[in-house]
Amino acid sequence: MPTTLVIDxxxxxxxxxxxxxxxxxxxxxxxxVAVNSVGTLFRGFENILKGRNPLDSxxxxxxxxxVCPVSHGVVSCKALEAAAGVNIPDNARIMRNxxxxxxxxxxHILHFYHLALQDYVNGPNMPPWQPSWNVDxxxxxxxxxxxxxxYVRALDMRRQAHEMGALFGGKLPHVASFVAGGMTRAAQxxxxxxxxxxxxxxxSFIQNVYMPDVDAVAARYNDYLSLGAGYGNLLAFGVFxxxxxxxxxxxxxxxxxxxxxxxxxxIANITEHVTSSWYSSGNALNPAxxxxxxxxxxxxxxxxxxxxxxxxxxxxxxxLARMAVNGDYAAKTSVMDRHQxxxxxxxxxxxxxxGWIGQLTTRSARASYTVPTSGTGVGLGEAARGALGHWVxxxxxxxxxxxxxxxxxxxxxxxxxxxxxxxMEQALMGTPVADLQQPVEVVRVIHAFDPCxxxxxxxxRPAEGARIFALGHYHTGEDAHAHxxxx
Amino acid sequence: xxxxxxxxxxxxxxxxxxxxxxxLAQLGNVLANPNAPTVVWLQGASCTxxxxxxxxxxxxxAPKTAxxxxxxxxxxxxxxxxxAPAGQxxxxxxxxxxxxxxxxxxxxxxxxxxxxxATCWAYSSNGVEVTFLSAVQALxxxxxxxxxxxxxxxxxxxxxTSANPAGIRSVSAATGKPTLNIPGCPTHxxxxxxxxxxxxxxxxxxxxxxxxxxxxxxRLVHDQCPRKPPSEQHQNCLERWGCxxxxxxxVCPVSRWNNGVxxxxxxxxxxxxxxxxxxAAASMRRASASGNCYGSCHREDD
Lengths: 487, 302
Known about the structure:
The structure holds 2 protein chains of 2 kinds. Chain A is an alpha+beta fold. Chain A has helices spanning 45-49, 57-62, 69-84, 90-116, 141-169, 189-220, 319-325, 335-359, 407-411, 423-428, 440-448, 477-482, and strands at residues 3-7, 19-26, 29-35, 178-179, 182-183, 234-236, 239-241, 249-251, 254-256, 270-273, 307-310, 375-383, 386-395, 398-405, 467-469, 474-475. Chain A has one domain (3-486): Cytochrome-c3 Hydrogenase, chain B. Chain A contains 12 helices and 16 strands. In chain A, a hairpin with a 4-residue loop joins strand 15 and strand 16 (474-475). Residues 455-487 of chain A have low confidence and may be disordered. By secondary structure, chain B is an alpha/beta fold. Chain B folds into 2 domains: 5-216, 3-Layer(aba) Sandwich (Rossmann fold); 219-302, Cytochrome-c3 hydrogenase, C-terminal domain (Cytochrome-c3 Hydrogenase, Chain A, domain 2). Chain B has a 5-stranded parallel sheet, with helices on both faces. In chain B, helix 1 packs antiparallel against helix 2 and helix 3 (49-55) packs across helix 9. The model of chain B is unreliable at 1-16 and 288-302 (pLDDT under 50). Chains A and B meet through helix 1, helix 4, helix 5 and helix 6 of A and helix 3, helix 4, strand 2, helix 5 and strand 5 of B.
């Protein structure tokens, strides 16, 4: 008999996440057989931006996410600069890369140690680390102690990564120095020197602690090198411009279909489906002409997330997609491959930053920028957790339309118009669940994507008569249909 | 859990925003009590930025880091980003706290009220979904004190501006309860630690008309700014580029950010007024006739 598990909240991620998975026996194995993914926080940033001074958008859009603000800031500036046809100086490009790289590193460290690790290791014996699900923990006590010690060290290292970025950003999270045209202040020689000191210590931590710890978890949980595979469709917008052509990136733009070589991305092929989303605005629009009009309730909808698709297909985004498209990691998807690609990427970025800081000078980091009376611009880039795009349209000197497609929209999207699941939904299908009261396997698959919500995943619509099981509390299927989402 | 109370008290002595000796003794008594209130930290219409900022805590005196705060100083019963438990196990913690009434409620993010609160769900308990709106209302009614962390919780913040499509309100407006407001976008980790310490001792001191403690928000940014005329740097004052320092209260020029490495005006970025209820209501960046010059039209290098 199918059982629906409610996990709400799924903790240790950015924002709100609810998961309901239906579990049943298939070929003698208890596993996930149904999944829906539902975002449950709508703030309406795109609507808030309408009519505003375009110069505000780097500040406003950074506040979408306190974990990836730098990515929003960079991409927003790029959209404004594209709309005005402004090229920024090399120093501005390099400083943005350095601040962005700092935040990628802090995010990757935070994700592995502070968000994901407790799925595999028991934390300190006190709140907020206890009570926890004590199931399938495979490390012995001494190994656990080492990893917990590194959890504390990692708190220190991610803090230092933010301090490193703040040398040029002014503060983190939410940098002060990003403006259309460049940076508000040029680099100072003392800061360049301080940056090098931070980077050296952080790079050492990545090489000597973070990467070995990820390898240790992957080795002990090697069944997760095949679990959570999903579609295997990978997409990256690319990030870290190496010159001002927009073509030469540290991690290139492209997409991969399973078993095929990488191909170039045409952003005209991106559409956002809203059949399953609580919006009344048009379906399958390209973000350049996108709209965001909330409608709740709405028949057939179950999420505040839209469903972005590339050529009408779902694509996974994130470090694994970036590294695979760039040829730095095999195009093989699983829970542990996602963790390992993320750690490898941290080292690649840190190594590149060491070169960039050597290219930075104390000369101007800002080009003159005048808001165009009218124009459109697209900014593409990456947040730590995947491809990010901003589409701006300016009219009468103000923002006429602003559309944002975030990484977690790709990964945690609901079904599209064709009824095809989002990437994370697909990755959850078939996931074995040993203990219905402690479905840690489900949470491991979700955490590997490093979801950055302010939105949520929500798996529901159980089969008629299915039992609803809220982790220790059984209900009848009728209860599920009676709750607010069913109306 | 309560390993190093004395160490925690040191931070208050060592800080410019510290407590008096009498209050230090009070705090010691509170923390020595095994029944000291827990802290329940909820996230609503937030970006998690204030939680990330909290993790950036670093001080020369204990608790030196976020880890010290968590391990040695407070009992953080609930925090969605940091806690191990999920699902019903997590929801039960909230129920336990609510039943006991022995907790400080810390809220990050505003409270969406549109669509009956359905644009933000807090948790499910026994299969029933609970909106953030009803969760905050229920918990606030039982909490010993309610702390609004960041400008969104204190005043609604950016998501509540202009169209406010999610109907976001401040925690105080949504619950009808007075809140201790520690605004900032994000707010500063030292201010969070200060607020929790003072709430534990019932010694928050005087508040201004916007619910902010005078100890942290009693002075204008401009009045503490190293570029205030007639200082040597006064020619670098950013007022003509739209700096809000004359209208914004906070100790940013003293606290600085990220272990003191910088702060907004230090990188020639005008204050955007992020600790005020009016934050982001009007345009935050001003363009000059020749483009958005900001402060960096003048000397850029040291």
